[in-house]
Amino acid sequence: MGRPLRSGVDGFNACELNFGKTCADAVFNRDFLMMTKSVNLSRATAAHDHAVCLHNGWLNASVRALQHDFDGLKGAAKSFCDQEMSFSASFADYLVRFLRSRPWHPGAVPSAEDARWLGRFSCLMGTAACDMAHCAYSFCEADGKFGLYEECDGWDPVKGMPHA
């Protein structure tokens, strides 16, 4: 069902599927924060995105430090995706994983396996950099729990999370 996508396919972009358009726009404008600034997560449903960020290692200080560095974050995403070169899936596979994790349901989180799978799928969509920027901009860790936006010390709606 659907054409299988393979990571590492140069030039592929989510615009080809008319999905993930905000990430394609962010790439075109050389600003990965453009995508994340176009959404407003609610506290009730942010746990889903946080789990994807956490299980893919996108909440670390090195990713946060790159949130304003287009080329640096693009390189970090390429490194992440290069590790997943053998990963392939169809868009239908993505929908099954995404929908079963019920991201619209308050407090719903994908399993660790599904969260990692969803992270790898972002590579197939063209780049993981938009999702990495989303993680760096939106979340912090505090007392073993995650914080969102202004719940985090130093968060700024323009600059995102502090990286120091």
Fold and architecture overview:
This protein has 8 helices and 4 strands; from the N terminus they run E-H-H-H-H-H-E-H-H-H-E-E. By secondary structure, the chain is mainly alpha-helical. It has one domain. The strands form 2 sheets. The chain has a two-stranded antiparallel ribbon. It has a two-stranded antiparallel sheet with strand order 3-4.
Distance between the termini: 45 Å
Q: Based on CA inertia axes, which overall geometry fits?
A: globular
Order of helices and strands: EHHHHHEHHHEE
Strand order of the largest sheet: 1-2
Contiguous low-pLDDT stretches (5 residues minimum) are 6-10
Q: Tell me the number of helical segments per DSSP (H or I, 4 or more residues long).
A: 8
The residue-averaged pLDDT reads 83
Count structural domains: 1
Strand content: 5-15%
In which range does the helix fraction lie? 40-55%
The biggest sheet, with number of strands, parallel, antiparallel or mixed sense and barrel status, is:
2 strands, antiparallel
What is the radius of gyration computed over CA atoms, rounded to a whole number of angstroms?
Answer: 15 Å
Structure summarized in a few sentences:
By secondary structure, the chain is mainly α. It has 8 helices and 4 strands.
Distinctive features:
164 residues; mainly alpha; two-stranded antiparallel ribbon; 4 strands; globular
Question: Any chance you could write out the topology, listing elements then pairs?
Answer:
Blueprint (H helix, E strand, L loop, with lengths): L4 E2 L14 H8 L4 H4 L9 H10 L5 H5 L4 H13 L5 E2 L1 H10 L11 H13 L4 H10 E4 L2 E4 L16
Antiparallel strand pairs: 1-2, 3-4
